[in-house]
Amino acid sequence: MKVNNHEVGYRINSIRKDLGLNQEDFGKRISDAHKSLVSKWEKGQSLPNNERLKAIAEIGGISVNELLHGDFESYCYGIFDAVNAAEGYDSDRAYKEITDPGNKRAFYAKVFDYVKEYKYDYEDYDRICNLYKKSIANEVHGADYTNEGSFNYLQLELEKIKWGLRDYFYTPVVMNDTSDAVPGDEVTIAWGGIPREGADFEMYEKQEELITQTKIKLSDLEMDYKENEQ
């Protein structure tokens, strides 16, 4: 998900003001950054490099991800909004009851509970998107305790198992690179991991592949079911 330089700048500005510092004194605490550079950050004209991002986040009492994207709940809600726009949910009558402004907030909160249950984090952008799509499909198509709903239910559970397996075998490590970011750039947040003692990559790959093949077979079964229903 793209980093909004202006929103990052606003958060940097808020941290600085909360500390009661002017731009010159704030810069001195961030690797002796010149006040003109601090001004560019706050105006969203550029982003700090990795070292300075970490320093700003530390003195602000937040994580680097929160500095870049805001609090995690707002970050997820932004993803939900983006999916609605990309998939046309906002303009589709079939999804009106969910995307209506009066109901949207409650549904977002429900999906965010799933996000927390699956222990997703900022780096799990694609997983959060897929989870939202599955959740909205369940809600709209009357998925509870129906044949169609069982497919969505199982896919969600398999996805949960898949990423739970990753965390079982590996200690996650998040890597950010914003060194030369300028307005319009997309900052990549990649996931890496350190194998846990007693666990190995070969076994992880075999078990992950088993889950992947199960998901594929489930999708094939769903397609057969839908074709027979027509």
UniProtKB/TrEMBL annotation:
InterPro entries on file: Cro/C1-type_HTH (IPR001387), Lambda_DNA-bd_dom_sf (IPR010982)
Q: Which Pfam families match?
A: HTH_3
Domain HTH cro/C1-type: residue ranges: 12-67
Q: Which domain of life is it from?
A: Bacteria
What's a Gene Ontology MF term here? DNA binding
What SMART domains is this protein classified in? HTH_XRE
Gene3D superfamilies the record matches: lambda repressor-like DNA-binding domains (1.10.260.40)
Q: What is this protein called?
A: Helix-turn-helix transcriptional regulator
